[in-house]
Amino acid sequence: MITKNLHKLTLDNTDFRRVLITNSHSQLVLMCINPGEEIGEEEHDLDQILYFVAGSGKAVFEGREEEFAAGDVANVPATTKHNFINTGDSPLKLFTIYSPPEHENATVHKTKAEADEAEHH
Fold it and tell me: What is the mean pLDDT of residues 36-59?
């Protein structure tokens, strides 16, 4: 199955989290992080790869900080404590691949607050 123009879908996405594709062993999620916001520090038992389509920011891996920009890729092996922070003045647009899936199929969280609320229930 083909998903047309992932780059455009990512740029057009305004939701904090939008699950686009879920398979048995992997998942593709679009994200939009507003200026000054962050994904939030987390650590999970799965691998994650993030591709930054637009914007810039700061990644924190186990307390170590790295700057990133559009076109960069972040690799987060399982059990790595990490966070991604939008330090720019425009939305940070990215897609991420989880293996295995992290979220329920077709999940949409319009805001980080909505995502945080869903994770605590």
Answer: 98
Range of the domain at 85: 6-119
For residue 110, being part of any structural domain is answered with yes
Strand-pairing partners, residue 110, are none
Q: What is the CA 28 to chain-centroid distance, rounded?
A: 9
What CATH number is given to the structural domain containing 66? 2.60.120.10
E strand segments, the chain:
17-22, 27-33, 47-54, 56-61, 64-69, 73-76, 82-86, 92-99, 108-109
Q: How many residues does the chain have?
A: 121
Give domain status of residue 1, yes or no.
Answer: no
Model pTM? 0.94
Could you read off the pLDDT of 38-49 as tens digits, one per residue? 999 999 999 999
What totals of helices (H) and strands (E) does the chain contain, helices first?
2, 9
How many domains does the structure of the chain reveal? 1
Is 70:56 a contact under the CB 8 Å cutoff?
A: yes
